[in-house]
Amino acid sequence: MVWQISILMLMALVSPLQTAAGAQSKEDTNMDRVRVRYMVNELDPAVKFYTTYLGFQLERESKRNFAMLERGHLELVLSTPFGPGGAAKPMSDGRKAAPGGWNRIILNVHDLPAEVARLRGASLHFRNDIVSGPGGSEILLDDPSGNPVELFQPAN
């Protein structure tokens, strides 16, 4: 299931969905985006991480609790596990949202070793070293709250 979600997110970054109708209204265009929510411990360091190092643009924010970032057709929603929003509310069984885990967004890069060197030069934390498989090479970068971001270079 994780790989299916990853593929859908990757597709959203690479090629926007098209409708048979051709021209789309603004409301329809919003349906072409993939939105992912990451829970973060603190909003400001997370926004700085994604905008400074990974090419996201700040779309809107509500200080302390919420920010929406954009990169292509991907909207990254950053929420704190506290505050007034629904993302901070506990589940019916009492569980609370928390940062971390293994689900992740995947960002394609042209030169993975160069990107890793650049980000290591900024003292960012990686979970592993570059690993390669038949589809390409990847590495997991942690955001300031411990959420993974996979940097992926497709095989030639």
Keywords:
single chain, 156 residues, alpha/beta, 2,3-Dihydroxybiphenyl 1,2-Dioxygenase, domain 1, globular, disordered N terminus
Give structural notes:
The model is unreliable at 1-24 (pLDDT under 50). This protein has helices at 2-14, 26-30, 43-53, 112-121; strands spanning 34-39, 57-62, 66-71, 74-79, 105-108, 131-133, 136-142, 148-154. The chain contains four helices and eight strands. The chain is 25% helix and 29% strand. The relative contact order is 0.17. The protein has one domain (33-154): 2,3-Dihydroxybiphenyl 1,2-Dioxygenase, domain 1 (Roll). The protein has a four-stranded mixed sheet, with helices on one face. The protein is globular, with a radius of gyration of 16 Å.
Instruction: Decide which structural class fits the backbone.
Output: alpha/beta
Number of helices: 4
State the order of secondary-structure elements, H for helix, E for strand. Answer: HHEHEEEEHEEE
CATH class reads Alpha Beta
CATH topology: 2,3-Dihydroxybiphenyl 1,2-Dioxygenase, domain 1
State the strand order across the main sheet: 1-4-3-2
Tell me about the largest β-sheet. 4 strands, mixed
**Unreliable stretches, pLDDT < 50, 5 or more residues?**
1-24
Based on CA atoms alone, the radius of gyration comes out at 16 Å
